[in-house]
Amino acid sequence: MLDRLSSWVVRARRGILAVFLILGVLSAFLMAAVQVNYDLTAYLPQDMPTTKALTLMDDTFGYTGMAQVMLEDMSIDEILEMKAQIAAVDGVSMVMWLDDVADVRAPLSTLDASVVQSYYNDGAALLTVQFADSDYSERTRAAVQEIDRLTGDNAMTGSAVTAGLLIQSSAEEVLLVVLWAIPVVLIILLFATASIAEALIFLFVLGVSVLINMGTNAFLPSISFFSQLSVAVLQMAIAMDYSIFLLSRFREERANGTDPVVAMTAAVKKAFLSISASSTTTIAGFVALMFMRYTIGWDMGLVLAKGIVFSLLSVLLVMPGLALILMKAIDRTSHRPLLPKVGGYARGVSKCRWAVLIVCVLVVVPCFIAQGQNHFVYGESAIMASEGSVLAADKARIQEKFDVYEPLAIVAPTQDIATEREIAARLSEVEGVASVQTLANVLPKGMPESLLPEMAASQFRADGYTRYVLNLSVEQETAACEQAVADIRAIVNDVFGEEAGVVGGASSVSDIREVVESDYTVVNAISIALVLLILIISFRSLLLPLILVLVIESSIWINMAIPYFQGTDLSFIGYMIVSSIQLGATVDYAILLADRYRGQRALGESPREAAISATRLAGESVLTSAGILTAGGLTVYFVSSISGIAQLGLLIGRGAALSGFMVLTVLPILLALLDRLITKRRKMQ
User: Fold this and answer.
1) Where is the Membrane transport protein MMPL domain (predicted)?
2) What is the DSSP letter of 642?
3) Which residues fall within 8 angstroms of residue 468, CB to CB, at 6 or more apart?
4) Would you say residue 43 lies in a domain?
5) CB contact set of 605 (below 8 Å; sequence gap of 6+)
6) Beta-strand runs (E) in 119-213
7) What pLDDT score does 684 carry?
8) Residue 446: how many CB atoms within 10 A of its CB?
């Protein structure tokens, strides 16, 4: 079977290349049709409170975007004029300020100071803007941009502003990340390969597979912005191993004096099982993500796994023919590999093996504990508002003058005015709630609802439901905010049962936290179990796979503990996704070295010498693979302005480097020390 397949791939090389080129071009056009989702709440399970509340809100009032605009150094008349201009912007539903709750023509000193300070403080006015559509609609984005133009250097914040910046940054950075990654990866390939043409062939073949993967995303309902921004670089970096392995086999066959066509046929046959096995562990790590209840894992797992399959097909079908077509160019541009040899390093590690193991234990054990003690963040605002960004700066400017603005909305069955006042009073007593607005406390006592302007009434009444608008004085992602949301939900459930819902960034974060923390245990267990199962089948051993997985898991613990020791926040979604990616993508390094070790032991070398030889023989491949994935991850980190995406890149890049280091340093020592157990089990089998 493999003989016929290998022969067909070589014989039909021009036709195969033409088919993949056509698919690549078509996919490039399809990329424009890919729907990208930026709303993290869309991935929550249907039975979560936030999902139910969003559906209820959308069916009654519509789930509209919100923003805050702070105007400085303006008179009352100028503020009112600017308010009118903002209200006239297409896509703006309503603008609220002090004049909606008090007579601003009267001296401000005669008004309730606590009310005034919520809207006007120290020469600054804070306007709340409600949009006609959701935070993520094009109309809302255009409205935010127009308000920004109207207000000039004044500060803006809020969910609509965050969503707009997220969409804008993602659109600008998709191509930018790839354009930066290509030269970085090319430089590493020039050091690692034996020919300049080889390096270019690698990039071309994997580039086609990336195009096909990104284009076929158009057939999915949507993909997350996480996938859109990171998958291209990750796919190219992770799958580069397959290309290197195939052409290395080809060079070995040619070195024996074999005809190039015959040599390539043999190379495809010999590389097929190794490349397939290597890709299987990688895909297993991605498939584990698809078991998340928070379905962004399904999204990223599917897109990444699909990408590895396309990469595998491109390497096995396209690369053989392309290499033969460009064989003269490969020969003309050949050079010796420039990567450093690791034989001396391997001997040094072997001599210091006990010290290395002691240091490893002293590092890994605290890191295992620390990686679970990170301060995790879950929401969209934390992913976007990195320190030093315009969004973070504007938020800080507003909070210098006013309290924290964290809006929540409750949609509940309409009650009589007296009951609504009582409910609003109970909500106001919750620690962390700065204000509660509903029709009952906006409507002057004794005034019938029928006399209230229809526009004002429609903000609070619709289809038998009432909207309560709350403002929290506590930041998202804090224990105080979590407690406030829990207390608010308790009151809502006590009064309305399941007929009401709470909507807002703070409540969404609470639900996302609940789901992904339970997901982590499941995903981690499944990814480890799948990888272990594949390794047990491949090596026909239990102990050896456990050693390999332990080494990679140790590097994951170190990687994830670094943010804890740095005192920086860590995105839990990134933490979970990278844990699976790092295991699936870098366990190949350990497999390669262990395979080399077993080969050297079969040749009669002692455990210690076999460990040194295995490190020397596998070192170049491990350095290349880890170097490319590190470079790809760090490119995302340095290029992306989206904090959550940049952190994802940093974790992947640093994780690949740590995995490579642990495989070349700790794994050889463990293999030599546990050789008797490994060998005994093999003999028994």
Assistant:
1) 43-329, 452-682
2) S
3) 409, 410, 411, 412, 423, 424, 427, 436, 437, 438
4) no
5) 613
6) 120-121, 124-131, 155-157
7) 44
8) 5
Residues 6 and 54 placed together within one structural domain of the fold: no
Whether the pLDDT of residue 387 is over 70: the answer is no
Q: Report the CATH number at residue 17.
A: 1.20.1640.10
- What CA–CA distance (Å, rounded) separates 136 from 299? 19
3-class SS of residue 468: strand
Q: Do 351 and 423 fall within a single domain?
A: no
The whole-angstrom separation of Cα 586 and Cα 582 is 6
Residue 174 lies in a domain: no
For tokens 């991935």, name the residue.
Answer: 43
Residues with Cβ within 8 Å of 437's Cβ and at least 6 positions away in sequence, in order, are 460, 468, 469, 470
Sorted by sequence, the CB contacts under 8 Å of residue 550 that are 6+ apart come out as none
* Separation CA 116–CA 79 (nearest Å): 14
- On whether the CB atoms of residues 163 and 142 are closer than 8 A, the answer is no
Domain count, the chain: 4
Which residues have a Cβ under 8 Å from the Cβ of 600 and sit 6 or more positions away?
Answer: 609, 610, 613, 614, 617
- CA–CA distance, 134 with 91 (Å, rounded to integer): 10
Ranking 205-209, 270-274, 370-374 by mean pLDDT, the lowest is: 270-274
Long-range contacts of 143-149 (CB under 8 A, 24+ apart): 143/89, 143/90, 143/91, 143/92, 144/67, 146/89, 146/90, 147/67, 147/69, 147/86, 147/89, 147/92
d(C-alpha 674, C-alpha 349), whole Å: 16
Residue 126, domain extent: 49-164
In degrees, to the nearest 5, what angle opens at C-alpha 294 toward C-alphas 651 and 56? Answer: 135
User: Residue 389, class by beta-carbon neighbours within 10 Å (0-12 exposed, 13-18 middle, 19+ buried)?
Assistant: middle
- Residue 667 Ramachandran class (φ > 0 left, ψ -120 to 50 alpha, else beta): alpha
Tracing tokens 């066509």 back to the chain, one arrives at 261
Residue 154 in 3-state DSSP?
coil
- Rounded CA gap, 242 and 58, in Å? 48
Question: What is the percent of the chain with per-residue pLDDT over 70, rounded to a whole number?
Answer: 95
4 found inside a domain = yes
Residue 665 parent element (H or E)? helix 643-673
With respect to residue 99, please indicate whether it lies within any of the assigned structural domains: yes
279, 354, 548, 571, 581 from 576: Cα distances, Å: 21, 33, 20, 9, 9
Note whether 155 and 274 are same-domain residues. Answer: no
- pTM higher than the cut 0.90: no
> How far apart, in whole angstroms, are the C-alpha atoms of residue 202 and residue 237?
11
The answer on 521 and 502 residing in a single domain is no
Condensed to tens digits (0 to 9), the pLDDT of residues 320-367 reads 999 999 989 988 998 877 778 888 998 999 999 999 999 999 999 999
